[in-house]
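Quick look at the format.
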Amino acid sequence: MTLKERIKNDIKEAMRAKDTVRRDTLRNLSAAIKQIEVDERRELNDADVESVLMKYVKQREDAIVQFKEAGRDDLVAKEEAEIALVRTYLPEPMDDAELEKTLQEIIAEVGAESMKDMGKVMGKAKAVIGSRADGGRISQTVKRLLGQ
């Protein structure tokens, strides 16, 4: 079962269980997926769907920061619940040691020696790591490894 099919099935289950938070969150995800499919006129595969989910999580995290500044703890809790739900559809994130080891292998493979080679490393890292680590975390680790 593809990730997209799993989300559709879970929407139906949430409707039956009258779980409005789960239902609404999954509907938002489904709408975001459909929007990209319509705009780009192509069927999204699991990797594409994972990137949509990562983007959705990032948007929720940004919203949490703004809601905390505004003192809206009710909305912070809602966003955190959505993030927890969406993360159940994403692969297990890499821990720092695993991420660093993978990036060291990529740096050796592409022959990167300085910050000038960061683009090559990031391109390969995105392909290898996928949605198991967010781009900011990858970038930060690469900069540290390349000795910025």
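Next, a different chain entirely:
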Amino acid sequence: MATEIYFVRHGETMFNQLNKVQGWCDSPLTVKGINDLKITARALSQVHFDNMYSSDLKRAIDTVHLMKDANQVSEIGKIKKLPEFREVFFGSFEGDDIEDTWRQVALAAGVGPQTDVTKIINQVGIYEFREATKKADPRHLAENKKELDERMVRAINVLHELTKNEKRVLLVSHGDFLKTLAIKYWNQSDGLHDINFPNNGSVTRGILREDGNFEIIDYNINAEDM
């Protein structure tokens, strides 16, 4: 049985608002973030889900509970937290200014003091971008492409085992993780260049087939437009 996955990006957080790098570190949802999520939750309130899941980071957990509380047609029990769907890990850059971070990554990638992450990725490709992030990190803790790719594959395998008897589920994850997932599994991506960053509260829809094959069929959609 194929399973339809509704991935929702968490709502805006304080670090999003302050333009800080936010991977495995966490910050609370803002008032705007909560209000935006209420719009998404209301738009999905009549969609039946067999289960709901989230990353194990608090901003994702808070988001999934908003989705659960607003849904009028699903009976969801305890939310299972999946660390495999955490945000990308940025190592020593966690909590730093985003533009300063990309400037250091760009220098490590050999493209000059660039702060536009899309331009950096499109010049060197997503693989070299991740390698440059790890290289630029003073402690070299940031996830490179191999580490992140292995985690994405593991995440899909974990989800496949959990959802074998579920037709439709909702899973709250994170912007860079969902973008990287789409670069890998969406047929409108070439697997190398950048794509639009998903909006807070947006929906990305995937199909997880009985044999474990996974594909993304809708990316970064406003829930009200679905």
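The chain has two domains: 3-89+143-225, 92-140.

See the schema section for token definitions.
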